[in-house]
Amino acid sequence: MQHINSSQLQVMSNRYRAQLVNSLSGFKSANLIGTIDNQQQTNLAIFSSVAHLGSSPALLGFIMRPDSVERHTLENIKATKQYTINQVNQQIWQSAHQTSARYLKNECEFEKTGLTTEFIEGVGAPFVKESQLKYLLTLQEIVPIKANNTSFVIGEITDILCQQSAIKKDGYIDIESLNTVALSGLDSYHTTQRLSRLSYAKTETAAKAISIDGNGSE
Amino acid sequence: MQHINSSQLQVMSNRYRAQLVNSLSGFKSANLIGTIDNQQQTNLAIFSSVAHLGSSPALLGFIMRPDSVERHTLENIKATKQYTINQVNQQIWQSAHQTSARYLKNECEFEKTGLTTEFIEGVGAPFVKESQLKYLLTLQEIVPIKANNTSFVIGEITDILCQQSAIKKDGYIDIESLNTVALSGLDSYHTTQRLSRLSYAKTETAAKAISIDGNGSE
Asked: CB contact, 8 Å: A48 with chain B?
């Protein structure tokens, strides 16, 4: 086991430390956030920090860096209060990564990366047609993080679009069947293979494997 | 494509909605957070919401639910200002899941689930011996999330313990080689298979595959 202490962390090159520290949290979600501005210019950017906050109401948050290339995303969310989150899958992971290039405000990441816009009635924010699980959010709160000047952007989910076959009878969505990818570090993409679902853990007995449909959970 | 709207979301049973909404964010990290109280009672709990906040300083955050069984974790962090985060791997995923059972404050999750404490000099908070990548944090800030009464707990990383062979020459840690698992929904565990690392995305050229060591990135 290598032990890296605080002094060693501080003297690393910025690039090395960024790779190292970005690897610590474990596997991350890969999501494309779609927005539109008041001039109807669409924007799309990849985020690895989308996190579940609660299911009733259905809330998700993501981290926005102050110096980020994805700042167009935040400007658009502030202007329109709406955005889409689209799971990245094995068909589009390279295009999704490419959205992190520093395209200008008037350049469209959809066109530049070969992804396709998709719209639902009455909503300006674009979905990614190639994504098999995507949803619309309304901005709830932007929480400033004093520790490093980032923001935690919180939205409520209002509409979900998903391949019907992936939704199991207890509500679990088999995102592996949708070929959703996971991220590690800054730039590594991974497919997955299920070990198992496990039953709700109780103190008296060890949790056991349950079926993908949730059978065996009680 | 199934379209689930806001009204449908609201009338679902709580259990179904919890499974559904927990599946939306994509793959999640699986981490065990280790703490100790002022009476030297250790505590261990699994979290799926650990997220990268920044690398300089090295900051991570995680979501704490108000009604959570892991509330002992927050009490201990407030009391001692320190905690460990330990990546869950293929050897310990079932024990890790079992820590989510509602053990009493005076029951030790390490003992109950068969995991082993490991300590470093001068630090009270326990590491998980079986974890191949783990680190120590000092509490920086607890940010209240008004939208649903959760908290975003932010800490700075001071010490990292990692299998040396997994740290690549540009700082990237090959967490797949450590058999780190990913989570989906509330209870599904997954191993991974790397598609590739990709080069830093630039506007002029498409990002390309790079080696696991980062070769080919420039």
From this structure: yes
The ipTM value here is: 0.96
What's the pTM value of the predicted model, to 2 decimals?
A: 0.97
Domains contained in chain B, number:
1
Predicted confidence pLDDT, tens digits, chain B (218 residues) = 999 999 999 999 999 999 999 999 999 999 999 999 999 999 999 999 999 999 999 999 999 987 665 578 999 999 999 999 999 999 999 999 999 999 988 889 999 999 999 999 999 999 999 999 999 999 999 999 999 999 999 999 999 999 999 999 999 999 999 999 999 999 999 999 999 999 999 999 999 999 999 998 76
Search chain B and give the residue with CA nearest A186: B172
From A45, A37, A189, select the one nearest A115 (Cα to Cα). A45
Residue B164 counted as domain residue: yes
Residue of chain B minimizing CA distance to A18: B55
**B17 within some domain:** no
Q: What is the CATH number of the domain that holds A73?
A: 2.30.110.10
Quick check: is A171 in a domain?
yes
- Domain region containing B100: 27-210
Whether residue A55 and residue B21 make contact (CB cut-off 8 A), yes or no, is: yes
Residue type, A4: I
- Size of chain B in residues: 218
